[in-house]
Amino acid sequence: MIRATDRPGSPTVFHERRTYRRRRVMDAARVTPILALILWSLPLIWPQSGEGTVSSAIALIYIFAVWSGVILLTWGLSRQLANEMDEPPDSEP
Amino acid sequence: MSTLNLLIAVCTAYVFFLFFVAFAADRLALQGKKAWLRSPLIYTLSLSIYCTAWTFYGAVGSAARNGFEYLTIYLGPTLVMVSWWWLLRKLIRIGRTQKITSIADLISSRYGKSSLLAAGVTILAVIGTTPYIALQLQSVTLSFSVFAAQSDGLAPQDQARLGLWLSMGLAVFTVLFGTRNLDAKERHDGVVMAIAVEAVVKLVALLSVGIFVVWGGAGGLTEALNRIDASEFGEWHTDRSRWAGLIFLSAAAFLCLPRTFQVLVVENDDESHLRTASWAFPLYLCLISLFVVPIAMVGLDIMPEGSNPDLFVLTVPLALGENGLAMLSFLGGFSSATSMVIVAAIALSTMVSNHIVMPIWLQLRPSGASVSGDVRAAVLMARRISIVGVVMLGYLYFRLSSGGEALASIGLVAFCGLAQVLPAMLGGMFWRGATRMGAFAGLTAGFATWLYTLYLPSFGVGTILPMAIIDNGLFGLEWLKPDALFGISGLDQLMHALFWSMLFNVVAFVTVSLVTFPSPLERLQAAQFVNIFEHSTNARSWSGGTAQTEDLMVMAQRILGAAEAQKLFLRHARRQGARGDLPAPTPDFLESLERELGSSVGAATAHAMVGQITGGMAISVEDLMAVADETAQMLEYSARLKEQSEVLSRTALELRNANQKLTRLSIQKDAFLSQISHELRTPMTSIRAFSEILRDTDQMNSDDQSRYASIIHDEAQRLTRLLDDLLDLSVVENGQVNLNMREGTLRDALDRAVSSAAIGEDGAQLKIERDSAKEEILLHTDLDRLSQVFINLIANARKYCDAAEPHLVIRVMQEVDRVVIDFHDNGSGIAPEAVDMIFEKFARVSDQKAGGAGLGLAICRQVMTRLGGSVDYVPASRGANFRVVLPYSTAMAAQ
């Protein structure tokens, strides 16, 4: 008879190092949009008037700098994830 | 005037170029050269369908009016593209696996293939897209009028005519390249290629204008930035709610707009292209928006007060005297407008024909769709009509609105309307509990709110919604005022509508989903959509978890044998480190088990069997087909085996017959040997006896002497004949015989044979019946040998025919390539069991009629073989019938 611990589907706790790395790259790919969203939401808390207002040039440079950063990050991650596209992804969240 | 003429010439040339590109791409695709047509680069460029004329011209206008707000329109899609790993990959996989043809199809497919939902989304899409098409037509006519203003201006009726020509041209292009084939996957290589080219034109045009403005007009990057700071842009002033709301809205629109869905999901050829597009399309958007602010800034600087900032992209280069650059910029705007209309028309026509026209058509047909070609033609026709209808609807809207300002904001209004699909779409992809009723409720609530708070008011106060409702709310209820629901005023109208419509949408969607119960089909589709990666893995693989190891064990034992199966399971259990003898059904284990089983029952069958037990996977049609293939192979194999075994048993039978014949021959040979020794011995005995009498008897009268001597002579002759026969046979058999070929008629040969056979005739007369006329056949053969055969046959008839009045018929038949001579007597014939023996040496039908040594027929057969013919015994109803066949080459019909 099968005991509870032998039941099918009990997940393996430890993965080998490569698998572990791969999963963290996937995690990174998942959080990238959140990071971008947070960075682009920063203008929401910039002061609209009075002291400390951000000049247009700085604002423009900031937004495009974040943009370039996001593009570079996504590019790097998409290279890392090249092999994953063909394989079925893991059920691990 | 010359500028306008030049513009029209360039424009026409460009359109022909696009036709050529689309045509060439379609041709290449037909030739199977898809690799280049469907590269990640082309895919990325085709996504730029998102950037329409509204973004091409309008972005600068928006920047001039509202500062940095225009950026949100590009930031939203960037966020979506960056979310490729968890969002778009899933969306595209669903689209490919479920063969999704449009966003309406996606929603309907997810919620139990509901046609009502599909029709609803389609209507929403048509309502949301028509003004947008009108906007594109307007932007092109406006840009024309900018050039025309340089000469003598463009009359309003000319604008209308231009709009009509443009929409007709676009409709023709779309019908030509959008409905070429009715592919199940709805891919249009020519259109995608043309759009990719237009994407490049757009980008190059905007970048050129930007670079010219920054380095040519503003005097370098730093200087430009300083001037931006000093200009009306000044400091960062952006409505916070609009900044956040528009990012959300543009992201939602990027997913939900029919045209972007078309290129993003439907036209996607390879999931891996998404990997490139995930960073390349944000790069494209980044570059497109890079120079918007400088252009707007310079435009505000140098253009006269009150000029339309939407056209700065055109007017700034013109004002600076750069006509070529303005032309390029015009082409960029033209590309943006045309590509949008083309793809939107394709996407909408697919939806309209699939979800509105076809259902109605099939309902109206009394017999139903029974002929497949019939439906195909009908679908194509419906699609073509829909394309023309959609484009013309846009033109109509363009003519009716005709006020430029009303159209300017319609882009965001359309975005907001289509964003109502988002909750149902995302909910359907990530939440199994989402139901059809929920989706329907959410869409209805959101759509109604959008219609009431944004769409209808967008036509202008008092146009469709009466003034009273705007002022006092619906039914005079203050809290139902379209621009201040529940009394919350002060919000921007767009944000107000977006907030309430999305809120009602999501709340209705979730609440109704929670309280309703989905149909079985819905639940199946829900599982398929939400767990798409488990259901559609590229390689056939197992995701375990529900498999019953014990059941697998039982099955494996049946197939592999108990000991083997237990060994396999134990090995895997040890490898997994599991306690007990049964391993967990991990994918590794299942795959290896499947391989083991596959070696016994075939891969597909094994896959299906494991699939049945694990239950984790629906057996796909491909699996079933693979099973069928394997079965067919096995059937073929067994048929081959059966055939081989039949051949073997036939051979065995022949061998058995041959063996029996050999045994009989051996017996006959022994019999012959004793016979021949007897035959030789009898004359020898009499010769010895009579010669002794002659030697030992002194007084013998001459009569006796001569009588005894003649007996000795006769017996010696008999011996000689016997030995001659034996010699003759061995000579013929060994092929040492020399054929004396000459010409003569068959009749002569037969005459000779009959007369020879008649020598020594005694007792019963054999009556021979012949037909001389038919025997007049000229032969070229060894006539002596042939006569010998005939003599033998006739002598046999005489010897063995046991009828009271022996009678032989010799019948000659001339056929196409041979001459047949039958010797048919009226005796009792030859016993069937003896038939295959009579042509063997030493064979004799009966012992008592020991007339010869049994060599005659054997010699006959050998002779006939040498002559290229044959002699056979042909069974007849009564009597013996021997048939001699001569090949035609030896027979020449007598003249």
Q: What would your notes on this structure say?
A:
- The complex is a heterodimer of chains A (93) and B (895).
- Chain A contains two helices and no strands.
- Chain A has 93 residues and is mainly alpha-helical.
- In chain A, helix 1 runs antiparallel to helix 2 (56-80).
- Chain A starts with 16 loop residues before the first helix and ends in a 13-residue tail after the last helix.
- Mean pLDDT of chain A is 73; it is low at 1-11 and 87-93.
- Chain B is mostly helical and 895 residues long.
- Chain B folds into five domains: 2-406, Sodium/glucose cotransporter (Up-down Bundle); 420-536, no CATH class; 542-618, no CATH class; 626-729, Orthogonal Bundle (Helix Hairpins), CATH 1.10.287; 737-893, Heat Shock Protein 90 (2-Layer Sandwich).
- Helix content of chain B is 69%, strand content 5%.
- In chain B, strands 4-6-7-9-8 form a five-stranded mixed β-sheet. A three-stranded antiparallel β-sheet of chain B has the order 3-5-10.
- In chain B, strand 8 and strand 9 (881-887) form a beta hairpin.
- In chain B, helix 11 packs antiparallel against helix 18 (323-364), helix 18 crosses helix 19 (372-401) and helix 33 packs across helix 37.
- Chain B is elongated and about 175 Å long.
- At the A-B interface, helix 1 and helix 2 of A face helix 6, helix 7, helix 12, helix 13 and helix 15 of B.
